[in-house]
């Protein structure tokens, strides 16, 4: 199961690269679309967020219900990585997946929001791109659910990720406000509770994730951190411009293959 990041989709380049890497192993795979990321909005007010674990749990159950009896692995990217680690921590020994890889995880959501909301640096570019579609989707939902009590004008005025999360993400996902959402949904503090083999891949030059938030050392022998000097946010390209290699995707799948061999 592959989980994409904020405002991505199953068609995102890194998801496709992961599916290709999985196919080369002869494995089957499912790429889950977060709510409102499939090309059409879902019907309820609730969308998706970094703390969402019910939907991937549901997909895992459907996979098992379809008759899959072998090992079930998961790979998450960015927001999907945080949600995946949170799911593993919540379920412990009863986790629905046997092993996982998490790439470019925002372990501390509040710190990552501050990095995105800074007026300078690479995070500012990501913020503008994210907010353009996030606001559009949220306003569409508020038109469909006018009695929900949330203000379209406040959403429309949101110019930072924190302001948007305060106006829409948090209240539509049963959090009190943005700060409550960041505190309760961050995966970093939950890592000691994970009981499945996990590889986390993070880059020190990630413009969205401050290097000081990378959990080293990780107080859990089940969780490994592969920390690189370069790689950006879900980048990690190797090879050449003509023949690029998707390094992180290959590392994630190889880790899961090693688990399968043990």
Question: Which secondary structure elements does this structure contain, and how are they paired or packed?
Answer:
Blueprint: E1 2-3, H1 13-24, E2 31-32, H2 54-65, E3 73-77, H3 79-91, E4 99-103, H4 109-117, H5 122-144, H6 152-157, H7 161-172, H8 178-185, E5 198-203, E6 223-228, E7 237-239, E8 244-246, H9 247-261
Parallel strand pairs: 1-2, 1-3, 3-4, 4-5, 5-6
Antiparallel strand pairs: 7-8
Write a structural description.
The chain contains 9 helices and 8 strands. It is α/β, with parallel strands linked by helices and 262 residues long. It has one domain: Alpha/Beta hydrolase fold, catalytic domain (Rossmann fold). α7 crosses α8 (178-185). The protein is globular, with a radius of gyration of 18 Å. The protein starts with a strand and ends with a helix. 43% of the residues are buried.
What key attributes describe this structure?
262 residues, Rossmann fold, six-stranded parallel β-sheet, two-stranded antiparallel sheet, 9 helices, 12% strand, globular
């Amino acid at each position: 199961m592959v989980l994409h990041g904020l405002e991505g989709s199953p068609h995102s380049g890194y998801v496709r690269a992961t599916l290709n890497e999985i196919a080369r192993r002869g494995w089957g795979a499912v790429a889950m679309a977060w709510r409102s990321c499939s090309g059409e909005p879902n019907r309820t007010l609730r969308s998706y967020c970094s703390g969402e674990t019910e939907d991937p749990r549901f997909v895992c159950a459907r996979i098992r219900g379809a008759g899959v009896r072998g090992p079930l692995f998961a790979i998450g990217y960015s927001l999907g990585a945080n949600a995946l680690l949170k799911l593993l921590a919540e379920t412990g020994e009863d986790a629905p997946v046997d092993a996982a890889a998490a790439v470019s995880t925002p372990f501390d959501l509040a710190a990552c929001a501050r990095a995105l909301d800074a007026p300078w640096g690479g995070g500012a570019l990501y913020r503008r791109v994210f907010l353009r579609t996030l606001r559009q989707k949220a306003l569409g939902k508020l038109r469909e659910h006018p009695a929900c009590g949330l203000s379209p004008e406040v959403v429309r005025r949101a110019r930072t990720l924190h302001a948007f999360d305060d106006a829409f993400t948090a209240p539509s996902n049963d959090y009190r406000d943005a700060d409550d959402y960041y505190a309760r949904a961050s995966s970093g503090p939950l890592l000691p509770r994970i009981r499945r083999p996990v590889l986390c891949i993070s880059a020190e030059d990630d413009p969205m994730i401050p290097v000081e938030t990378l959990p080293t050392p990780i107080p859990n022998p089940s969780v490994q951190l592969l920390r690189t000097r370069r790689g950006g946010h879900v980048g990690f390209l190797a090879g050449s411009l003509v023949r690029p290699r998707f390094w992180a995707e290959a590392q994630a799948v190889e880790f899961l293959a090693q688990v399968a061999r043990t």
